[in-house]
Amino acid sequence: MSTHVDDAASPNGTAFRAAVPYPVDPAGAGTVTGMAELVRTGALAAREVVDAALARIAELDPELGAFVHVDEDGARERAREIDAMVARGVDPGPLAGVPLGVKELHAVAGWPYAMGSALHADRIAGHTSTLVARAVAAGAIPVGLTASPEFGRASFTASALHGVTRNPWNPALTPGGSSGGSAAAVAAGMVPVATGTDGAGSLRIPASYCGLVGFKGTYGRVPRGPYHRGTAENDHYGVLTRTVRDTARFLDCVCGSDEYDRSSLPAPAEPFETALAGVDLRGLRVAWTPDLGNAPCDPEVAAVVQAAAEAFVAATGARRVPAEVDLEAACGAAFRTLSVPDVHAELRAAPPDRLHAVHATVRRYGDAAAALDADALVDAHETRARLVAALAAAFDRFDLLLTPATQVPAFPAEGPMPTEIAGRPVDHWGALAVTFPFNLSGHPAISVPAGTAGGAPVGLQIVGRRHEDVRVLAAAVAVEGLGLWPPPTPSR
User: Taking every annotated instance into account, which residue ranges of this chain make up the domain Amidase (predicted)?
Assistant: First the structure.
């Protein structure tokens, strides 16, 4: 094993040593796949795994704020069930004994279901998300809920209900959002995997800032049932992990059509984990763009990620081709228009005298929803259609599109989101300009570690054609193999 450690000043003035369990050997117990195989064979008890996870949460979470609810009793009871199955010679499944963090936007029956909002501070979930239920059926052990900004509507993770979530590599900085609690939990080694959502980059941005893998599959790849609320059709479900193979293992356990989600796709004919080995990247046409034609990008981020993109092309035998992608500025307005009804769905039943408890950004969503008219909705859908057509034409010219996963280095943990990038003013959507277009279009996209910028990790985004998820994952495996991101180990 190798060790990569950064010391940073924590908010309380003490030294925080940011070290992440990430064994060089993928069979090690620090990965999802390695841990599950050890538990399945009886070489490692699930109760030991859970006890270690709970101990690390107790040690680190007071400083990081990754978890908003921990179910110690439930996790230990589930671990005992897994160990009993192994003792009887029954295979608990491909996620056997793996501690799982669950983003608080995902329901778990009997657990709090506040979604980061004081409006729902006392709400308890009456159902379990399909994503979580399938992971549990495959042997995973949910240990608690991870933090999200209110209703997932920011790219940093802070809320009046739960406070601020911090980046394990530098607690002064954000782990990103909205799946920032999940990213901080995985990056700090509290759990090896945690669920997330991606409506505008909320898996890829935290993955970028925390040195993780964050994959948004083709729209519908991971089912969103039951009872998913939303009309925008931008939301994608997924997980944050330390390796691409871990992500593939998890996908194989949770993907597949779900009668509760009309957009869900059938499971692929070949499991993702085994399909990765058969992908040949030689000769693929690969395009690089730092800005998708019109998005400002911090020069340091652009330089680090471009070097990773060039190393990927050289190492795989792919062919570099021009990107020639220039997405229209109207995409941001279209995304806003299509998204505001989703927030309205959460706010419309709230008593007027409670709306003061809602963050101003969320209230603005509600105000915008009240002002929507048919022309605005039609314009937004037509803009989306033009985006889909533009990307279809672009993917006739290349097979993979490479960009930065974030346009700026990690910013302060308390926020706000950037209002200026590379000297250019940006609005909310301008700070997400390299991620949200692929939510509108439904293309698969992944962030994989590319190096560091501004004192924290930064990721390379790889985008592929719709339904070519395996190729995107295989390209991310190739980036992992470049050694751009030292695999750190626990040393705190």
Answer: 48-473
